[in-house]
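1st attempt posting a full record on here, be nice pls
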Amino acid sequence: MIKKYSHTPLDIPLSYTVFRNPVGLTGLISSPEGLIRLVNKLADEKSIEKHLTQLTDGNISKKAAHFKDLIKQFSLYFDGKLKTFDYPLDLRLGTPFQQKVWKKLLTIPHGKTRSYKWLAQAIKNPQASRAVGNANGKNPLSIIIPCHRVVKGNGDMGGYTGGVSIKRYLLKFEQAI
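the predicted structure (as tokens):
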């Protein structure tokens, strides 16, 4: 049985911004340690507040300038000029198992896909394909941590928290399918 993970609200300052890219309006939330949450397909800028209140009841500030480098990296990525993001990440929202899965996702090369079975074997837990699928689905930093590059063993797309249409778009964009 997989334990459900829940966290208490973070007692740290968070900064955020919202920007537009080819997959829609995206929100970025950062702790002092690094990017802690990325939210795709926001309806509008105000809808980021729901995600902020789930993370903290504390100090929140909008700081577009703080994310200037990361937004530039997204621009380069969507221009086909960047394969790997270089920005500090804060993975504290995940369990140790989820963090292990997310770190392994970072090793999947741009333009390639891997199966859930491969991912389970890569973290040295070959019986955990379903658990790695669940951890993959809880990835708080999609695109940067490329969970979209994981597909079913038979090559089928599988699910994607942001919607299968975004997953298909990203894989086609990266020429992985």
